[in-house]
Amino acid sequence: MNAFIPGFGPLWLTLELAAITTLILLLMCTPLAWWLSRTRFRGKPVIEAIVSLPLVLPPTVLGFYLLIAMSPNGMLGGPWMALTGNTLSFSFIGLVVASCLYSLPFVMQPLQNAFESIGHHPLEAAWSLGAKPVDAFFSVIFPLAMKGYITAAVLGFAHTLGEFGVVLMVGGNIPGETRVVSIAIYDHVESMDYDKAHAISLVLLGFSFVILLMVYTINGKWRRRGL
Predict the structure, then answer these.
(1) Based on the number of CB atoms within 10 Å of its own CB, is 75 exposed (0-12), middle (13-18) or buried (19 or more)?
(2) DSSP letter for each residue of 71-140
(3) 98's torsion region: left (phi>0), alpha (psi -120 to 50) or beta?
(4) pLDDT tens per residue, range 21-57
């Protein structure tokens, strides 16, 4: 299939990375976003600032510190090396870890905003009917926050698709392992192979447009229904 679709390998690897990253972030961010939307903890602004750092921090800076942390003697790479015998940097697992940190605010903020917009009354009504906290969340809060979940998933997925600086610093350019589509496009441009760069970019552009079109269509239907 690679012969018929230029850059299919990096494109497939990128889609796999984006899907795994988005799924992990949705699972991780749900309890944290819920807690941030309800807590009165005085240190909340500090936590929100830490979560939002990737929005303003240059990707190369984040990638540099992640590369140090994932080195065989680093805070993350050392235990991983002892456990698996493999390095965390320049690996697909390392890309997943880096992508989760890089795309964290793009998933966290929509979820937190969705939870805050719901307010306390739906949850209190569920409790008054005898629902346990977990049951109340999945039967009441989760459906009401579905729009936020869709927005968070799309933003996290799309942001991971376009990663360059972080993945280059942490993963390098290993074909079949860490060579994602943004790096493949850069390589083709650097080698003056504009035809392949254009082909890959066009596929990614069309894919991103279709995803956003679906989201705006769904959100438009929900707005007309008053959801």
Answers:
(1) exposed
(2) STTSTTHHHHHHHHSS-STTSHHHHHHHHHHHSHHHHHHHHHHHHHHH-SHHHHHHHHTT--HHHHIIII
(3) alpha
(4) 999 999 999 999 999 998 888 999 999 999 999 999 8
Q: What are 163's two structure tokens?
A: 């990663």
- Token pair for 62: 């984040």
Other CB atoms within 10 A of residue 113 CB? 16
Q: What is the C-alpha end-to-end distance of the chain, expressed in Å?
A: 43
CA-closest candidate to residue 34, choices 118, 103, 125: 118
The token duo for 205 is: 């552009």
Which CATH class for the 8-224 domain?
A: mainly alpha
The pTM for the full model equals 0.86
SS3 state of residue 1: coil
Q: Which residue has the tokens 């009917």?
A: 129
